[in-house]
Amino acid sequence: MNFLLASGNAHKAEEFKELFSGILNISASPQTLEVDETGETYTENAFLKAKAYFDIYKIPTLADDSGLTVEGLPDILGVKSARFAPELKSYEDKCKLLLQMLSQKKSSRTAYFTCVLCFYLAPDEVFFFEGRVLGKIGDELRGSKGFGYDPIFIPDRKEDNGMSLAELPKWKNEFSHRAKASQTALHFFKESMDKSHKKP
């Protein structure tokens, strides 16, 4: 099955290609569309993006909406994670500001990432899958293998060695919020394809 990724983010495109390798073919969009993400939930925003790209390209589309929730700053990130501190152009600067805010308030650093995937095959055939990874916010930016807020997010792992998502590319591909949502989607589409192949 072929899907167009509703994003111009090259990092996401590569990540999804790896996550769905051998089962679903994910192609990066030839251009980025400006989609007004007015939804109040990840599901609503993922749907808005998937539908916008489907309406233009008329092919099955995959969109994701994800964000970081920090217990000590509950009203700042979440579905608005990408729009946090819009005056700052780089995520490195956004991460530094977030660390500064947490230090000043001495707030809880417990946090989690959420990802919702929307597979828009047709107006009457839309599927959603969600994944979440728990962790905490570290004290500094660490690692260069991730993007967004990965360098400051320390996921809960049995090793508990303080490594951030940006230092754990292999672990991330298997256990991140995006990986978990993708694994659920893969299971669903595998079953669907198996059933279609068994039909007489």
What's a quick, concise take on this entry?
It is built from 5 helices and 6 strands.
Please provide the count of β strands. Answer: 6
Q: Tell me what portion of residues adopts beta-strand conformation.
A: 15-25%
Per DSSP, the total helix count is: 5
Could you say what the CATH architecture is? Answer: Alpha-Beta Complex
Oligomer: single chain
- What would the CATH topology be? Maf protein
**Secondary structure: helix percent:** 25-40%
* Sheet with most strands: strand arrangement: 2-1-3-4-5-6
Question: What structural class do helix, strand and pairing data support?
Answer: alpha/beta
> How would you describe the shape?
globular
The overall average pLDDT, rounded, is 91
Q: What is the name of the CATH class?
A: Alpha Beta
Task: Describe this structure as you would to a colleague.
There is one protein chain. The protein has helices spanning 10-19, 42-57, 91-105, 169-175, 177-198, and strands at 2-5, 25-28, 61-70, 110-122, 125-137, 153-155. It is an alpha/beta fold. It has one domain (2-198): Maf protein (Alpha-Beta Complex), CATH 3.90.950.10. It has a six-stranded mixed β-sheet with strand order 2-1-3-4-5-6. Helix 1 (10-19) links the parallel strand 1 and strand 2 (25-28). The longest helix has 22 residues, at 177-198. It is globular. The chain starts with a strand and ends with a helix.
